[in-house]
């Protein structure tokens, strides 16, 4: 699936392509994104990020002091247990099949991934099986969207119904992350690409939800997943303006990458504050740039501390790949021994035993 590039404010947007993990074979290209756009003035969504190599160990504890009470239950068919986080990844490693990649990580981590993340395009046939999925694994299907008008008018009802039947045929709980990062201006399903109309996104979401219900796809757990910050910054493009409502969302997700020395609280604190008392939170895409030395390892350790201090976090899904064409950073967790060791320590901790 082609993915929008990371960028800092004012930089041009490039495009690149990665392959999703197919069910039994390669799947058609699908758009996904890991862009980050920091507001120039810091705004309400940002805090001061540490300098190069800094770990800012007080970040997690400082933010925890002011946290609201965490949600105690939820998640739909993919159940949530407060204080226990599932760990998973989008995993695509050069020269390895999906099954081989999972086997490598299982050996390195001493455990299996609980969540296996795959990407599909709007017109793709969604999977009924996922290659390399552990026996107790949970698929997370990120399914790209379409323009609001085409959904609301019913032009895609057959396609949506087919998707519902395919995921129903998995006969296991599955996370569906439809139309992610809708608060960015880089996707056809973003409000910025649909006449700045957040109501259209919500109506589209509910339309899909109704068709899935009519098809009996009650094994699907719905993941609403904005980007950590909005582009553009506008009243119509906020979390609140784009939220479909508690009755239509099982998990609140968020994408956030350490690209410009952001702390975990900069990336994930606002969504936690906004929804952590109402819904379990899932960090649906996360990764860290390696600035040399222990910078990547230290950020992973800092992130683990932050999750430890935030009990409504019920899932973390890493962007674990080295096959991301057109981008220099290799996102895989084992780019160096220090980073791998930090990730292994996180994966084996009690906090990530969900």
Estimated radius of gyration: 19 Å
The residue ranges in which pLDDT falls below 50 over 5 or more consecutive positions are: 1-64
| Helix-strand sequence | EEEHEHEEHHEHEHEHEHEH
As for the number of domains, it is: 1
Structural class: alpha/beta
Supply the CATH architecture. Alpha-Beta Barrel
Task: Specify the overall morphology.
Answer: globular
Major beta sheet, strand line-up: 4-5-6-7-8-9-10-11
> What's the pLDDT, averaged over the residues?
84
Fraction of residues in helices?
Answer: 25-40%
Describe this structure in words.
- The chain is 27% helix and 18% strand.
- The relative contact order is 0.19.
- α1 (58-64) runs parallel beside α8 and α4 (157-168) crosses α5.
- With 354 residues, it is an alpha/beta fold.
- The protein has a single domain (63-352), classed as Glycosidases (TIM Barrel), CATH 3.20.20.
- It is built from 9 helices and 11 strands.
- β10 (281-288), α8 and β11 form a beta-alpha-beta unit.
What is this entry, summarized?
The chain has 9 helices and 11 strands. With 354 residues, the chain is α/β, with parallel strands linked by helices. The protein has a single domain, classed as Alpha-Beta Barrel (TIM Barrel).
Defining traits:
354 residues, alpha/beta, TIM Barrel, three-stranded mixed β-sheet, 9 helices, 27% helix, 18% strand
Give the SSE map.
Blueprint: E1 2-4, E2 15-17, E3 32-33, H1 58-64, E4 86-92, H2 98-109, E5 115-120, E6 138-143, H3 148-152, H4 157-168, E7 174-178, H5 198-214, E8 220-224, H6 239-242, E9 251-258, H7 264-275, E10 281-288, H8 295-308, E11 313-321, H9 337-347
Helix pairs in contact: 1-8, 4-5, 8-9
């Amino acid at each position: 699936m082609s993915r929008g590039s990371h960028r800092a404010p004012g930089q041009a947007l490039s495009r690149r392509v990665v392959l999703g993990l197919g069910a039994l074979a390669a799947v058609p290209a699908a758009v996904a994104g890991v862009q980050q756009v920091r507001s120039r003035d810091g705004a309400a969504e940002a805090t001061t990020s540490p300098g190069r190599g800094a770990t800012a160990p007080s970040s997690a504890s400082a933010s925890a002091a002011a946290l609201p009470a965490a949600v105690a239950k939820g998640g739909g068919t993919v159940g949530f247990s407060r204080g226990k986080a599932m760990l998973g990844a989008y995993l695509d490693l050069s020269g390895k099949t999906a099954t081989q990649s999972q086997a490598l990580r299982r050996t390195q981590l001493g455990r299996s991934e609980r969540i296996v993340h795959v990407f599909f395009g709007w017109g793709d046939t969604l999977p009924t099986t996922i290659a390399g999925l552990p026996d107790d694994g949970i698929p997370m299907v990120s399914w790209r969207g379409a323009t609001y008008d085409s959904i609301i008018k019913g032009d895609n009802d057959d396609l949506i119904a087919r998707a519902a039947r395919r995921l129903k045929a998995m006969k296991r709980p599955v996370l569906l992350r439809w139309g992610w990062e809708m608060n960015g201006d880089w996707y056809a399903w973003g409000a910025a690409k649909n006449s700045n109309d957040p109501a259209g996104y919500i109506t589209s979401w509910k339309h899909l939800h109704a068709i899935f219900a009519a098809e009996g796809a009650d094994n699907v757990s719905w993941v609403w997943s904005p980007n950590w910050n909005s582009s553009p910054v506008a009243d119509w493009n906020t979390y609140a303006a784009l939220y479909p409502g508690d009755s239509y969302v099982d998990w609140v997700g968020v994408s956030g990458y350490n690209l410009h020395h952001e702390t975990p609280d900069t990336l994930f604190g606002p969504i936690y504050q906004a929804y952590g008392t109402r819904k379990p939170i899932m960090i649906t895409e996360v990764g860290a740039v390696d600035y040399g030395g222990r910078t990547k390892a230290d950020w992973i350790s800092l992130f683990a501390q932050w999750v430890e201090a935030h009990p409504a976090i019920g899932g973390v899904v890493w962007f674990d790949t080295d096959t991301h064409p057109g981008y220099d950073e290799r996102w895989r967790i084992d780019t160096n021994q220090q980073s791998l060791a930090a990730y292994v320590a996180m994966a084996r901790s009690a906090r990530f035993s969900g």
